[in-house]
Amino acid sequence: MAPHTVAVNPNPVVRTQDLYRGFNGRTILSGLDLHIQRGEFVALLGRSGSGKSTFLKALAELDHEVEGSGTLDVPENRSVVFQDARLLPWRNVLQNVTLGLAGANDAGRRMLREVGLAGRENSWPVELSGGEQQRVALARSLVRDPDLLLADEPFGALDALTRIKMHALLRQLCARHQPAVLLVTHDVDEAITLADRILVLEEGSFIEDLQVDLPEPRDHGDPRFGQLRRHLLSRLGVAAH
Ligand SMILES: Nc1ncnc2c1ncn2[C@@H]1O[C@H](COP(=O)(O)OP(=O)(O)OP(=O)(O)O)[C@@H](O)[C@H]1O
After folding, report:
1. CA 153, CA 155: separation in Å to the nearest integer?
2. Which value, in Å, is the radius of gyration of the alpha carbons in the chain?
3. pLDDT of 10
4. pTM of the model
5. Substitution candidate for ligand 1 out of 28, 83, 201, 236 with most atoms within 8 A of CB
6. Residues of the chain with pLDDT under 50
């Protein structure tokens, strides 16, 4: 596991420099520098309240109420997935996927097929399970072919089995569509399973920036998986057993 070194690429998809964010005079992010390259899958770990969502919202430019400074370059074409699917209940599945996109029905159907929901185009959100709703949310994000996918605990509300299926699906979809990804998660195993690179945020700074050089699909029984898990848990202040 080598420390991450940023490849020389003059055009990262995401670039932050000296990024500060705070609330009511309290600093949450204190001068973050980060580059994310096209196709790079980055997971962001950190204790509760460390500022993970604040950082993700900064990249999504959804943080209007915040105090801040620094440089932020993010692509226009970006999608955000949250813990809840946030589907419109009065639109069917296909309409939710293609919301705001004219003439995208064929692309929407293709995307629904990719997430395993072919034949459910005319279903209503209320007729879907939580995992299916998150598949629709992923389809809605990826049909826009985003340069940047921002995901804030997207599987946090799902049961363990569905989460495993969604991990495989997300990896496949990202390999195919190649967006840069920032995934915020509390789950160390999820981060190691999915990411090319893992950041740990603590007291406003990245205290870890690790490249995950494990073969795919990632094997939880691989001793290197366990070693990385122990290291990350200790950096998060949790004793691993
Ligand atoms: N709108 C806000 N107004 C004031 N303080 C805020 C606001 N949003 C977040 N904070 C504070 O900023 C800090 C970081 O919050 P943030 O939600 O980014 O943490 P997090 O790492 O995502 O936490 P969690 O893992 O619990 O979701 C917290 O102390 C939180 O209370």
Report:
1. 6
2. 18
3. 67
4. 0.93
5. 28
6. 1-8
Residue identifier of the C-alpha nearest atom 30 of ligand 1: 49
Q: Is there an atom of ligand 1 within 6 Å of 193 CB?
A: no
Amino acid (1-letter code) at residue 221: G
Domain annotation for the chain: domains and CATH numbers: 14-77+146-235 (3.40.50.300), 87-145 (1.20.1580.10)
- CA dist 232 to 3, 25, 121, 180, Å? 13, 30, 41, 22
